[in-house]
Amino acid sequence: MDEIVNRVANSPLRTIDLEEFYDETEIAEFDMKEHLFQGLILREKDFRGFIKEHNWDDYQNKHVALHCSADAIVPTWAYMLVSSKLNGKAKTIHFGKSADLQQRLMIDRLHSMDLSKFQDKPIVIKGCSKFEVPIGVYTEATKLLTPIVKSIMYGEPCSTVPIYKKPR
Question: Is residue 83 within a helix (H) or strand (E), and if so which, with residue range?
Answer without folding.
Answer: helix 76-86
